[in-house]
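To whoever is on call:

I kicked off a structure prediction for a single chain this morning and the downstream step that reads the tokens threw a length-mismatch warning. I double-checked the sequence; it's 275 residues and nothing unusual in it as far as I can see. Pasting both halves so you can look.
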Amino acid sequence: MTIQHLLVPLTGHAGDAAALDAALRVAQRFDASVEVLSLRPDPQRVLAYTGAEMAVATSMLLEGAEKASNEVAARNRAVYEAAKAETGAGPEVEFREDTGSETAAVARRGAVADLIVTPGPGQDPNASRTVLEAALFETGRGVLIVPGPVAEDFAERILVAWDGGKEASRSVAAALPFLEAATAVSVYTRDEGEDRCTAAELVRYLSRHGAPANRIADADPKQPVDAAILAAAQRADAGLIVMGGYSHSRFREMILGGVTEHMLFHADRPVLMEH
């Protein structure tokens, strides 16, 4: 298994450039191609919220929506052009534009990508979660969530946050190319459960794939799990965290809080997850 093609959806918000830069670094490492998907709002959607009797207001709203859509498209193109100029004769990069439903576009293009790369939602309070949620819930692919600029060797040392569940297992499978190429892999667990695959079994599995895996101890069992994962990554000097996404319902985690929600907004290094 390897990574041959990455998808990077752009929405014109802060964090797009860092996500594309991380994708290009991954592509360089695995000799893969990158598809830049420029998502621009459909100005015609404004008509769905106005009546025929509001012709003047509708015209003004449509004009404003078209201007906003063009501005998003211009920002996306600028991010792409800047990245392309910096990489030069680097990985193959394709630019594609889509106007309309972000969810549908990401689901459609993500289905034929090996990895989807998006900014972390904590970077821009105005950014929609639509793209990230579409990548996680509509594609069946691994998603690399980038909280900011990354080092060239950010995936050399990796922490796997393991609970033995199917989401964690899927995330490990999606991350295998990274894990096999890493110089160090640390496996952290808090509560494996009686009927779940243990951290020791995961270490043996990763070793069969040539990954230099070892278990890292839980320094403070009383610490909240999300904070403990970040602390373990710090101790392991890991530039990438691999973990399952939304083991509980998305609604429950968003409303009541959960490990995934905390990691999405507060992780200080890239996180690769799959639901």
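Update from on-call: the warning came from a stale cache, not from the record. Cleared it. Sanity check on the structure: The chain has two domains: 5-146, 157-273.
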